[in-house]
């Protein structure tokens, strides 16, 4: 079955086809945006190490921008610092010294004391052990009379006795492999109620599950009512940003030391662990809701140092406390943490902003966050929200890129990028919720990188098409103007094409010379050739009886016809006045007004001489005179090509630029070909051939020579 081309044309131009095309064009932005948006969505879910590192740096930047001083003065740190080690000897200290330290704190009646020090082995400096070692190694017998009182001989007993008297919270360390303490541990699980939200019916497996525990000696475990783990884990870049508040061990929940100490201080009536089908949601301590991420971590809101200190919380040196240099009631109603900042004890951590701090301070940050309710949140909807933002950014911005022009697309990219980061920062500072702008920005960047070149190419195509249309329009206008001129002059379109050809040959040959190679660029040559047909446009203003006179003109008539250059100048200047600066018209003005000037200054209308005459006018003079000599006119017959060349050569330096005539003499045979190619008619072509000495074949109309 044959389908006619007409049927295909009708189909392609039918309303249905137009609708399909319009529908396809409307879907194009979304189709192009699909690939980069899908790639970034997958990367967002998988979170590659390098992108995760960038994400963490953005998080740190927001955190530092919004960081504020501590919201409460309740946390206080007793610090075993370098000064303390210098005065009381290297670590570990005898436990009677730790006992003395804790007793001094206890007497001030603090709310609770978290001890960030573990005692998993007996104290070897106890006098009871020293007596045994002396008797064993030196084979001596130390009598009871020679020994100090029995209750002072065991340092562990002294420390345990102090722990029983106060509201102390001991430390333990969970293991997540095979390692354990190798001894029975007395640990105190958290008495907490679990509340399941929505479809959650049992605890998801997101919470840390410990395999073993390293604990204090039983004497210490039995001396306290609470303990808390001191495990922390830095992110992939070594920065500490979050802490697990709960760990599950042997089916029971255990709190972090910071949380355990806070619970010991507040004695909350309500202690609730909320779990959704997606993982831990948060903890409730009376009226305080503590948001947790899906692994049970609290994102710690780093508190800024106070104006009078380089630290966020108050520190008391253990040496000052032991030496009695700390005022009474210093620890009253405080939540105290005992730990060490001495570098050699290897409890130094890094927080965002290159802030280095001892592990004991981390507990103070956690307590301050909970008491001041200054939480950083990672709600369960955050991941879904990030994915929605990525997808919306990908498709909406892609549509805007396609909908508007190149400049608007670039502006949209800049505004959208700034908006993503500013909006994310504003959300973080106002509500503590971190929605990463990184992945939406990446999808924005990829879409822009993909669509912008397409837009640029499309815009360039439209620009070129418009330029071509303008060029065609210019040529059409030139032809119209020239046709108007020809309607009043018996010179026809052949004259225009011939002079354009002559100018093209001359200009290209001149460009080979050192003098003109930078002046006569291809673009310049193209402009000169295009405006050449306007050279006699001023003849429109010359009366017909003079312009069309077949015989010789009188002196007065010749003066009148010389005015065509001035008439042409007025026409071009009027056009320039309307359009403003225009190189095309400016070059036309040069040719129109100067093509009748002569090298020796005897031409018209200005009497310019030498290189005062613009180059375009000098080239036009050569082309115009050659064509006048070799073409048929009502008032003359054409001369032979050789005679025309001789006449022009003779006028070198008078009528014509000698350099141009030198070039003309090299290419005059190509002039002959142009003259024959664009002869006005068979008759004029024959007369032109005859004038140029070319033998013709027999012609019934012309006869034979």
- Quaternary status: single chain
What spatial form do the alpha-carbon principal axes imply?
Answer: rod-shaped
Helix proportion of residues, in percent? 40-55%
Our estimate of the beta-strand percent is: 5-15%
Strand-pairing-aware structural class: alpha/beta
Gyration radius, to the nearest Å? 49 Å
Distance between the termini: 62 Å
Report the average pLDDT across residues: 84
Q: Quick one: biggest sheet?
A: 7 strands, mixed
Low-pLDDT stretches are 1-13, 682-705
Tell me the number of strands.
Answer: 18
- Annotation field: number of helices: 24
Question: Can you describe what's shown?
Answer:
This protein has 705 residues and is of the alpha/beta class. Helices cover 50% and strands 11% of the residues. It contains 24 helices and 18 strands. The strands form five sheets. Strands 1, 2, 3, 6, 7, 15 and 16 form a seven-stranded mixed beta sheet that branches. Strands 4-11-12-13 form a four-stranded mixed beta sheet, with no helix packed on it. The chain has a three-stranded mixed beta sheet with strand order 5-9-10.
